[in-house]
Design goal:
By secondary structure, the chain is an alpha/beta fold. The strands form three sheets. Strands 3, 4, 5, 6, 7, 14 and 15 form a seven-stranded mixed β-sheet that branches. It has a six-stranded parallel β-sheet with strand order 10-9-8-11-12-13, sandwiched between helices. Strands 1-2 form a two-stranded antiparallel sheet. About 10% of the residues have low confidence.
């Protein structure tokens, strides 16, 4: 079969690889009808998330049709059309039973303390072969796979494999409630769904912070007020918009993706596009001090804490590597802020979102900007990596 394979930092290719085989009684083999490119994939390719093993198939978003199930899968059968959650969970440990499926004690073969297991990630996450392929083995299929209604097409379904539930989880972490004013830092795919989710939870106002015009335009179409941090200090703008009070909730949908421009002295780390990311750090911090090389990921956290009203909540869904040690703890403590963060509990959240989409109460399709055949995946990665205008979320079509 064809699959997108990681070889080294900055080196991926579309290869012919062996078809997956059943390994456990609760496995299923799924023929992928849709996959996608996610910003998290870029973390592995750039080397931001270390520990990737050469030969790993990338991708953690998938929709498909079951080809085969093991004897332990009693609720699904071949021919069922299913959505594959990005994270893997067993369904029976205490964490899964409590809804913390991203912290499953069983799914990660590296042990209960190893953290979240997900498709297409580094050795520490499994590793499990990813979903940018024609076929995939899905472990714990009985507890993970979600049967899709016929009324939800692949284009809508693929958005619920990761980015919609992650954005929704960000709004949950931030404790968004009716009437709140919310700031979302980062208007990429997950940020767009964080904006939508904040409104779904009753937010009165949402302020989106980014620098790319097409992303800010999409946020504005959703009803968000927009701030371009290339043109104005985002904290000053948010304080002005809120009468000097600040926002009730902040969602960090950026994480380590915040980067310096070339002018700041930072070089790329194996970018697929072989050029700088267009997420550019402003010249000065909110406190007036200069940014220094390596300090860029702190910018969103600094801004978020500064933009929050006293006793507000910061929800962090942006990805940070385990060894990062960056947080304005003093400023947060002295404002009595609540800080909540983590990997999305996909299996707990997705069924409710599927029902919303099935019922027509929300249509996620606005975020999907590109549909590309798998044969063109490397060119699609380059366009997505360099944040070319109009390249927000890319659906891949295996077999084409």
């Amino acid at each position: 079969m064809k699959a997108v394979v990681f070889h080294d930092v900055g080196k991926i290719s579309l290869d012919n690889v062996a078809d997956p085989e059943m390994q456990q009684p609760n496995d299923a083999i799924v023929r992928l009808t849709a996959s996608a490119i996610c910003g998290t994939d870029l973390h592995m390719i750039r080397g931001t998330m270390g520990g990737m093993e050469p030969g790993t198939i990338l991708g953690h978003e998938g929709v498909g049709v079951i080809e085969e199930v093991g004897a332990g899968v009693r609720n699904l059968r071949p021919g069922d059309r299913v959505l594959i959650p990005s994270t893997v969970s067993c369904g029976y440990c205490s964490y899964c039973r409590s809804g913390y499926t991203a912290q499953c004690d069983v799914a990660n073969p590296n042990g209960p303390g190893a953290g979240t297991a997900f498709f297409g990630g580094p050795k520490s996450t499994g590793p499990f072969q990813g979903l940018q392929a024609e076929y995939a083995r899905t472990p714990f299929a009985n507890a993970s796979l979600i049967r899709l209604p016929d009324s939800i097409d692949d284009e809508r379904a693929i958005l619920m494999s990761d980015i919609f539930p992650t954005g929704y989880f960000g709004a949950q972490l931030a404790e968004v409630s009716r009437g709140d004013t919310v700031a979302v830092f980062g208007a990429g795919p997950v940020g767009q769904f964080a904006i939508a989710s904040a409104f779904l939870m009753g937010a009165g106002r949402v302020i989106a912070v980014d620098r790319l015009p097409d992303r800010l335009d999409m946020a504005r179409l959703q009803g968000a007020e927009v701030v371009n941090f290339d043109q104005e200090d985002p904290v000053d703008a948010i304080l002005t918009l809120t009468g000097g009070i600040g926002v009730d909730r902040v969602i960090d949908a950026v994480g380590v993706d915040a980067q310096h421009s070339a002018a700041s002295g930072s070089g790329g780390q194996g970018s697929v596009a072989e050029q700088e990311s267009q997420v550019v750090t402003p010249e000065r911090k909110p406190d007036g001090q200069n940014w220094v090389p390596g300090d860029a990921p702190a910018q969103t956290l600094d801004w978020g804490v500064a933009a929050l009203a006293k006793a507000g909540t910061l929800g962090v869904i942006g990805v940070y590597p385990p060894n990062d040690r960056i947080f304005p703890i003093g400023a947060a403590m002295n404002k009595n802020l609540s800080i909540r963060m983590g990997n999305c509990n996909h299996r707990s959240i997705i069924p409710g979102l599927v029902e919303r989409v099935r019922a027509g109460s929300f249509d996620p399709l606005v975020v999907l900007t590109n549909r590309e055949p798998m044969m063109d995946v490397i060119a699609a990665y380059k366009a997505f990596d360099s944040r070319q205008p109009g390249w927000l979320k890319v659906k891949l079509e295996p077999g084409k």
